[in-house]
Amino acid sequence: MSQSKMIRVSTFVAALVLVLSIGLQTLSAKDTGTSTTLTVQNSTWLGGQEIKPGDYTVSATETQLTISRNGKVIAQAPVQWKDEASKARYSTIVSDGNKIKEVHFGGKTKYVEVSAS
Description:
The chain is α+β, with helices and mostly antiparallel strands. The protein has one helix and nine strands; from the N terminus they run H-E-E-E-E-E-E-E-E-E. It has two domains: 1-31; 34-114.
């Protein structure tokens, strides 16, 4: 194989590796959506809606937290994703008084913080 052909092949491989690594970083940055089932023990509030005691599906996208029960959306609020020091052992809701402030998802290294409204 000629030297110029080897250089072209090497350049192509290097460009391919770069494109793939950027693509994987973009995918992992957008892979922030998650869902879990949580039990609410005491009445609390999210996005101006009361969440009464019971079992709920709690899901988060890149920008929004949704709490639903039996397929019906109960409350939604804007969120920001934050980094954990380590993976959360359990899924939990963190409240301040009677308002939901954070949701941590078991097994994840990120959690959502409810944005001030």
